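Page 47, continued from p. 46.
Same chain as before, 73 aa.
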Amino acid sequence: MGSIVNLPSTGFVRLPQIIGDRKRGIPGVLPIGRTTFLNGVKTGKYPKPVKLGPRTTAWRVEDIRALIETTGQ
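Result:
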């Protein structure tokens, strides 16, 4: 698992930056899988994404930091 330090201070992050991607060597900040995270988004457990373009979805860094702080990750 990565740490909150791996997140930028402001802006947006894509899914691999949140949950990690072993193939590309990107450490995640949450120790959960893709399906679990996306199901949590659907149920409201995790923050909703923002569409930045037709094929680009991202999450606000502030929302992910708040999630990490409330879950104690």
